[in-house]
Amino acid sequence: MSAPLKVPPMLSANPRLDRWVKFNDDRTVTVFTGRVELGQGIITAMTQIAAEELDLSFVQVRIVDADTRLTPDEGHTSGSRSISEGGSAMRSACAEIRAVLLAEAARRLDIPADRLVVEDGRITGADRIRETTYWDLPHAELLAREATGQVPPKPVARYTVVGRSTPRLDIPDKLAGRPRFVADLKRPGMLHGRVVRPPSFGAKLISIDEAAIRAMPGVVAVVRDGDFLGVVAEREEQAVKARKAMIAASRWDEQPLPTDATDIYRFIETRETTDTVIVERRDPAALARATRTFEARFSKPYIAHASLGPSVALATFEQGTIEVWTHSQGVYPLQRELAEVFQLPVESVIAHHVDGPGCYGHNGADDAALDAVLLARAVPGRPVMLQWMRDDEFAWEPLGPAMVVKTRAALDADGNIVDWSLDLWSNGHTQRPGVVVTTEPSVSLLAAWQLERPVPRIPQGDPAMSGGGGMARNAEVIYALPNQKVVAHRVEELPLRVSTLRALGAYANVFAAESFIDDLAQACGADPVEYRLRHMQDPRARAVIERAAQEAGWVPHQASDGTRGRGIAFAQYKNGYGYIAIVAEVVLEPEFRVTRCVAAVDVGLAINPDGILNQTEGGILQALSWTLKEQVQFDRERILSRDWETYPVLTFSEVPRVEVHLIDRRDEEPLGAGETPTGPTAAAVGNALAHALGVRVRDLPLTRDRIIAALG
Amino acid sequence: MSLPEPTRFTVNGVEHSVAAEPDTPLLYVLRNDLDLKAAKFGCGLGQCGACTVLLDGHAVNACDTPLWAVSGKQVTTLEGAQAGSTLARLQQAFLDEQAVQCGYCISGMLMSATALLERTPDPTLDEIKAAMDRNLCRCGTQARILRAIQRAARCGAAT
Question: Is the whole-model pTM more than 0.95?
């Protein structure tokens, strides 16, 4: 007998088979995923996986994403884990469901189960005479059981749905302008809400003339609870006008910030820190061969999610029951936090995921959900649609933390790296529930901390290295180096609110490490591609580096003419997920521009190859925006970048040619994809810029001013 | 309280009369009074293009266009796509290129691209970029959107 199969953790956590799949009377099935669609294509990929394992056609499968009444609890959709974790659970559940149903069909048809063939849900024997279907079987009874997780999924060689580029299910509605987003929902009697945030973090409300606001046209309720302020009106523009009036009419006691955007790196480097050695590999013999040492220091500013649409939620609150429609990444954690804030049983809170504006991590979605409920509580029985204004989003969403990274290396006489160290300074990269366990209740939701009877702020945390880490994500390089030491210096003091943003610490860490390795290559006169390959043994890593170089037409040792440059960078995301190498090309004249990005990607089995390409292209362009332009501005009082002019992002004119090449590894486990390109994009552009300029810019973003400064 | 004087205008070929304050942003009238949800609220500042609609054929931001300014005029939204139109051709090209990530910007992208192709049926890549520069996409879909607009232009030339 073979060893038992490893049960996917999400299936262990949600073992009932009927929690995953339901057979409908119209000969379709509905599958339930606890993962949420964020524009990354997850519902399409999950539908492919379910259709594949159940031997259904793609169009027979409908899908419901995260909903506390309906779907499995899969926590948060984050960290590029949806396919590896959620997909494996879906695959295992569907394989078992098929087996359970086939066992019953075998009994009824008097044909051994292994002789049965399933096609589009029709179950037949070889004689094609005796037949039944999934829907003719007592499926509800049969699925009312817990999964064993011991039914092997279909071999990859027999895949017909998975591994094929499949048009995304949500795109037709979005292209037709049909209501698909939270903000598009409409309910009878629906009111519109807006919130009034303090002028700065930690400010206390001194006074506000509520009566004057209540007298404004259309105003139904003015909500004041501690330092939380909001307004509900009949019409949306009335709520917007009332909010504006409330801002003018409110007086606040503000607290100064301990640092500002220019001082922040000195600040985080000089705080008390909690230090963790991430890796320490020692080979004294190799160290003894060192002839030259090098050092460098890199910095990365606070970066905003800056989703195109401000956070939004629809809520009702009546008779002790809360119902909320949200673009949260985790409806179950949100449900538990809302229950805590309102002191309700968890089952009295219902949370439905509905698509929202693009999500790249822990943004304002959950905060907006609480805001909407607080407003709905003031108007029992009436649904309230709450949307933040643009400045609410920029000033209050949790940001990606500022970081400092210092690197140090030693080379032997042949230019081989014999010693390597990386030290990084950062706040913890998450403020999600469930990361730090507290004895007293605490929540991640902004407004909860402002209430008359506040629920305390959840302590800042940092994802464990076992899950890929947070601040130290990708801080260890996977090059074969005899000596490597990585230390994470965690700063507890939090000048600004921060949490998870796409790739977390990997963005800065990969930028630093992959810039530094280019510096080393240059110091010993090596070609950057050759130098990486010289230190790399992992064949899949080598393959993406070689492929990216080949597709880009990389010419070894090519000198720059002083106006053009090209650079390469590599990473395996979380040192265990997708592999990617990116070549960037830049020009300096008439101004610094990135003209081309060529990537080679290996994510193992690609469920929906075009989906991987779309995610990778998007990841490259978003990272390009971060790398070239983005920096949250703040002074000693407040965040100053509050619109698209003070927080500019990539525009069409700045978009380079993007080419992504997917390496077919269908026999390998599917690996997370969405966050892989961020760090390598930054480093490839930085390396291309250094190649063109002859000097390196180590502080992000790589702006014109920084380039001029670097040229001295 | 008395209702404001109604404002009359045409949306997607249908005449409407809406009794809202004249300074009400067109976006809220479209979304809330006329139930046309394609145009999105992005910034309310005319900076991001998520709310782009056509006003007498020109791309405008509905978030900072007051209702009074559309009196007697023709507004076209994504919902007004007619078979065979430039807008419908763009929708098909965006579908073919799968030029969507979260999709929040897409309505505005399609409307700005429509205005461009109506004016310049065979634009260069630089002309497309210039015409789309006021439409932001945060997911990084721009490369696909550019390909989709080029595809729609080619299809337009073929018909």
Answer: yes
